[in-house]
Each structure stands twice: as C-alpha cells, then as structure tokens.
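The passage that follows is intended for readers who have already worked through the single-chain material. We present the inputs for a multi-component assembly, then the predicted structure in tokenized form, and finally a short commentary. You are encouraged to pause after the input and sketch how you expect the pieces to fit together before reading on.
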Amino acid sequence: MKAYDVLIIGGGVCGLTAAIYAARANLSVGIIEKEVCGGLVNWTHVVENVPSYKSIHGLDLMAKCREHAESLGVDLVEVEAVTGVDLSAELKLAVTADETYAGRALIVATGRKPLALPVSTEFENVHYCAICDGAPYKGKDVVVVGGGNSGFDESLYLAGLGVASIHILEVFPQCIAAAATQDRARRTGIIRVDTNTKITALDVLESDRGRLHLENCADGKTWTEDCDAVFCFIGQKPNTDLFHGLLDLDKAGYIVANADMETNVSGVFAAGDVIVKKYRQIVTAMGDGAIAALQAEKYIRAR
Amino acid sequence: MLVNAPMLDDAGFDAYIAANDGLVFFHKKLCPNCRVLAKVLDKCRGQLPGLTLAAVDTEEQPALATRLEALRVPTVLLVKNGRVVARKTGVASPTEMIAFCQQG
Ligand SMILES: Cc1cc2nc3c(=O)[nH]c(=O)nc-3n(C[C@H](O)[C@H](O)[C@H](O)COP(=O)(O)OP(=O)(O)OC[C@H]3O[C@@H](n4cnc5c(N)ncnc54)[C@H](O)[C@@H]3O)c2cc1C
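Having made your guess, compare it with the prediction:
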C-alpha cells in the first residue's frame, strides 16, 4: 500500500491545481490518473481564456501544469484507473489493478467524460476526436453530431484537414456554440448545419459508408443521409460510478459539495467539473482545486 | 512523445523493420490519445524488458502513414521478420497492449 497525506483521484486541471497547493503546504501528495494527466483540457485544441495565455494548445497548457506539480514532488501515477474506494475509515483508500493507495484526506477530481452516440451501430467510423481520427477523411463527407462549442471547433479542425463536406446535426432548435465560431464555420463554405434533427439509426452500407436515418423533431419528417464518418460531440456525464451510495450525488450523478468542497463524508473533498455547479471552466476547476487542497490541509492539521 | 525510441521516416522504415522485431507507434504531436498510448507503451516496456519500440510522426511522414494505412492515430504495428503481422488503432490498456505484443 502507498500512503500520502493527500490522495487525489483524477489528474485534470483541478486535481493538478489541488496537488500544487497541497504540496506547497508541505503535505505528501499522490495523484492517481486513469489516462495521462491533463483531463479534458488535453482534448481542447486551443484555449483562449486562461489568464496569462492569450492562446495555447490544451496539451501544452497541461504539460506546464504537470511539470509544475512534478517539480514540487507530487507523485503522478498515470494509466492506472481507480476501480474501488473505501471511505469508511480514517484513512481513505483507492484501489487500482496494481496497488492500493491511501490518503489522510481524499480529493475527488474525476471530472466528466463524453457521451456516446445515442444509437447502437455496427458502423466502425464513429469517432470522438477529430485530431486523432480525422486524417483519413480528406476529400470525404463527414457528419458531426452536436452543435455546441466542441462540435463547431472540431468541425473547423476537420475543415482544415480538407474534408469535402461537413454536416452538423443539432437536436435542439438552436446551436449553442459561440456566435463567432458559428460564423467562422459557415464561412468555410463546406459546413452546413441542421437544427431540430435527431439520429434514429445508423446502418453500414456495402460500400463501407454509413447511412444515417434522421428525423426532424419539429415536424416528424424523416430522411436518410450517407457519409464516410460520424464525429460525435453531444456533451458529458460525470465520472462518479465509484461513489454511488458513498457520496451524496444529485439526480444527474454530480457530487454535492459545499463552498469549501467538503462532501457528506468527513475527510473526502470533491472539486472541479465533477461537482454540482453552474460554470464548468478551466479557471473554475482550478479555483475548486485550490479550495479543496486548502480545506484538506486544515482538516489534516486539526487531527 | 516516446522516450528512447528511434523516429522512423519513409526512406528508413523497410530497412528498420527488416532488422528489428517489435512495435512501431504512429502518432501526432497534438493527439491526446497518443499521449495516453505513449505512457501505456512505456509501462509495457517496464514489464517486457526486451520490447523494441520505434515511432513515426504521421504529420512529418504522411507518405509513410498513408502507405501503411496508419492515418488514424494512435496506431501500433507489430512487426516480425520484416513484415507487419498485426495492428491496433486507438487507446489500449497496458494489459491489452502486452497481450497484443505477445501474439503470433
Ligand atoms: C471540448 C471542450 C472544450 C473546452 N474548452 C474550454 C476552454 O476553452 N476554456 C475553459 O476554461 N474550459 C473549457 N472546457 C471546460 C474544461 O475543460 C473543464 O472545465 C476542466 O477541464 C475541468 O477539469 P477537471 O480537472 O475538473 O476535470 P477533467 O479535466 O475531466 O479531469 C478529470 C480527470 O479524472 C480522471 N479520472 C476519471 N475517473 C478516474 C478514475 N476512476 N481513476 C483515475 N482517474 C480518473 C480522468 O481521466 C481525467 O483526467 C472545455 C470542455 C470541453 C469538453
């Protein structure tokens, strides 16, 4: 078993910020991260609202946060998923396939993960990352599901790769992506958008292309459309499966924490996108992480 | 991205795989899944000490990536006796990747 003063589950921007604060308070800190540190920010092509960087690639920003935490002696355990927790005793435990980790205080910063395409399909070309999977579709027709900021940003990336056409489908009457991004997308001349449009099925054709079955949510009209790939960006859900029955969650599965990031279990703090809150942004996740670490320090010192 | 692994180009690829069995990792600099798989491969190296790794940046070597149908990243090719004997695209866990290395 490996023991720390502060154990953090999740190495996104929130977990890394909490680690920096706790380490600077002379506490030993371990972060357990199921992928690599950086979390959702690693997936954001360009970040333009973190003060001190006018514009920076998400991966580069998180590499700097990671280095900062590492320079303070934080133990970063990567590609190890926490598969079980025990919050019942004074020492909080997190279990992975390789090891059991313990903390005098635990900070849950597990964030959110993308929702999958809401139809089951055998079509192989369904993707969730334009940077990773976009290159083979140069000159091809792609459909992007979701008219939020991610849907439009990733569409612009695909347009830059030279795909032939992009059709963005949004189930609601309006796209919520920033107006400036929507304008940029329309100016490419290859991106068109349909709102009020729902996918009801996705078949594989003999040509290996996909056939989408679509329905207009306003008037019930149905039609089909063929494409080479579908990229899906329809939102996120909280990573809280581990905590059902252990921590108070709201109906959507987010952890209920107070203004000091305390949960219903003494010594367990939760912070960042995983908690019930209105604005989920990099700087708000950092703020939450800082508060959770300071409060965890106070909790440890009082014992 | 992958430490201590030679970066291959189109000109040198065939000679390299003729002389080395192991894995070739196709990636892009700003691909988040590639960072994850690089870390997984590092971990595999710890568990399979004889594992030979090489890497290809698909943005710097588009012709090679196209020739080997490795435009989607991350893609890992298992090479033996100068031939590609298996391939895997997307993120995998260390256990899955070790099983992939040990096949054939
Ligand atoms: C497409 C997109 C673009 C965005 N763009 C911006 C932007 O431009 N500016 C901005 O301010 N905000 C942006 N945001 C929001 C911002 O990314 C989030 O608010 C922020 O990343 C939240 O950080 P976090 O650390 O709370 O969670 P996350 O970043 O989600 O990190 C959680 C971490 O926990 C890990 N984890 C989960 N479960 C486990 C487990 N069981 N074991 C171990 N590890 C686990 C995950 O792998 C992940 O690394 C964007 C969000 C999205 C989806």
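Commentary: The interface with chain A takes residues 28, 30-36, 39-40, 43, 58, 65, 71-74, 91, 93-95 of chain B (CB under 8 Å). The helical segments of chain B are 10-19, 32-47, 62-67, 94-102. How closely did your sketch match?
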